[in-house]
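Quick log. Single chain, no ligands specified.
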Amino acid sequence: MGVAGPRVGRIDFVNCFPLYLHFEDELRRRGFAAEVVDGSPAQLNRLLVAGEIDVALPSSIEYARHADVLTLIDGPAIGSVGAVDSVQLFSRVPVEQVAEVALTEKSATSVTLLRVLFREWGLSPRLAPRLESLADTLTAFDGLLLIGDEALHLLRAGVCPHHLDLGEAWYRVTGLPMVYAVCAVRRAFVADHPAAAAAIGEALMASRDRCAADPQATAAAGALIYDFSQAFLERYFDRLRYGFTEAHRRGLDEFYRRAAAIGELDAAPPPVSSQDDDDRPTGRLRRSSAPGAS
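-> predicted structure:
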């Protein structure tokens, strides 16, 4: 083994499933074994910045806030071109009438994205942390921002009269993809273990490509773990983009520019480079994809 147990954060939402389904197998093929740490995006953000894990897919805004200690690993990302389904503003009234919004505690990017969109629309509702109980939150606030599996379950339940998909809203405003998470590694780790850092990125992308080669089997495997049907997951995975194209680079740079304009970043970081500029233009999982295509 080259390096025993790099500590790799794994987001415990279904949206990351194709990146991690074959990850450990692919990493072993490259001569490494990982210590995998599960958590929400917010939890893994904190662990990565604190040096308690070495690599993760942190919220894209948190990467920008800590670019002094983090750098990008080539390839993996989580984004969408338009609707994403799992980043939703639920409300009891139309969005332009929302006065108070409870915010998820699980993601920094979605909160910043919502602030950016409200600024674009000239809206200024009061924003506050959600309550512990989802039912209490829906009663106390007329809007609720949720992400991940929780957003998917509430969307499927149809209990809120209004919902706004933030990926779709971003695309309507900018015409660009939205990047929710990037693959980041601690600079100190990549300096000491460059081969391990590269192998982790390669293994994540290899897992993605194996899943792209058989999306039905991928969705079926996910349905055994998560409370969603195979058919639902096939549709959902097809919405997501797991690569980082030139269009995604432009979308991320625009997000950072707008985040800085509203004070969510001290300044827009230098433009990020595109790391998936081959003939894989979308990074999506499709039945027609050949192995390695997406």
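The radius of gyration is 18 Å.
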